[in-house]
Amino acid sequence: MARIIGGIGASHSPTIGYAKDTNKQDDPAWKPIFDGFAEVRDWVQRKDIDVLFMIYNDHITSFFFDHYSTFTMGIDDEYKPADEGGSPRDVAPAKGNAGLSQHVAMALSADEFDMSFFQGKPLDHGCLSPLSMMGDENGPWPGSIIPLQVGVLQLPIPNAKRMWKMGKSLRKAIESYPEDLRVAIVATGGLSHQVHGERAGFINEEWDDEFLELLEKDPQKLVDMRLAEYVVKGGMEGAEVIMWLIMRGALSDDVNLIHKQTYAPSVTNIATLVFEDLGGEPDPKEIEAYREHMGYELAGADMLEGTYPFTHARSLANFRINGFLHDLIKPAHRERFVNDFDALAAERGLSEEEIDLIKSRKWIEMIRRGVSFFVLEKMAAVLGVPNPEVYAAFRGETLEEFLATRKVPITYSVAGGDKVQEMDKT
């Protein structure tokens, strides 16, 4: 089974990535940053860590205010660096652990956390700054990651207690995963800083030292603090350190401090921290009970004949074709889909199988493969096919045969504008 070996705390300031990318490791002003991360990297290598569970906040790069989630976790098998305005960093994509992330997703949802999930999105410095420091002269760190993005830049945000509770659930989730994996929980962000307004440049090193001390020895005091106290003591943006409570909550009460360092050269107190978890083996009966708890709500639904639950695994395996069909909501894509399909499909990298499924209108085959019905109805609208005709195809019936089974033999579509008027006349 998977085990949590320890926890890592690390600032995620863009200062870190900038220092690495501009080779400042021997510059006295920058060297302390590299020294701190060297200690973290060495511990990760010594402990043969397989997976880093990365807790971070995106800086309005991949996640914008048009849809801003509180907790959104990656379920992908690869994560590329994001372009934050001056082109992406020249770092290798990070490998994802889709199996463990999908398991954790089920667990946190079962524990009533209102989760969002993402794939196909790049990572900005919130995750990449510390992650890129895990590599050495031999190349990038070879393990895999699970990114958990926490929305802390637009109020309201979760309080410290909510972070702590998520950590407790995260521990149970990881320990109930059957594969033997060595996992470290990485909390990023902070320490004290504020980057906006007349208070920009605020740093409170005394609070930073107190925070790290309490995190090790008395985290409950941090859990009980209001968000306003974090803002006053550590700055508005520095309040993101509440994310470190997810990491600490995922560890046992008994931890061993392996490394701790802070360095405040400019506008952020840059910190690195390593806790080793000294907790004992989990109870096998408790693990089995937790697995049953995870699957309770949907137990048996996957056995219904003619029913294909849209799981994260099916979503990931079919992300490309679902994305291609979802883009039919865009007029330019829609026009090319109708008039220049082969070139469009080639540009988007569709496989021969995916192209055949779409061109041949193999409705039920697409459902069985893992294409969402709700992109198929968009495709049907573009083609002038009413929804009931798609339902009939699923059942192996003609439209007339399907309509004969309804109380009222009507047809309809999600199409709008001239298209829906055109369909209504046929």
Describe the structure.
The longest helix has 16 residues, at 31-46. The chain is elongated, with a radius of gyration of 25 Å. By secondary structure, it is an alpha/beta fold. It has two domains: 3-295, Protocatechuate 4,5-dioxygenase, Chain B, CATH 3.40.830; 318-425, Orthogonal Bundle (Protocatechuate 4,5-dioxygenase, Chain A), CATH 1.10.700. Helix 1 crosses helix 4 and helix 3 crosses helix 5 (160-175). The termini are far apart. The chain contains 20 helices and ten strands. Strands 1, 2, 3, 4, 5, 6, 7, 8, 9 and 10 form a ten-stranded mixed beta sheet that branches.
Spatial shape: elongated
What's the total helix number?
A: 20
Overall domain count: 2
Low confidence ranges: none
Q: What is the C-alpha radius of gyration, as a whole number of Å?
A: 25 Å
Q: Which structural class best describes the helix and strand composition?
A: alpha/beta
- Integer average pLDDT: 96
Percent strand: 5-15%
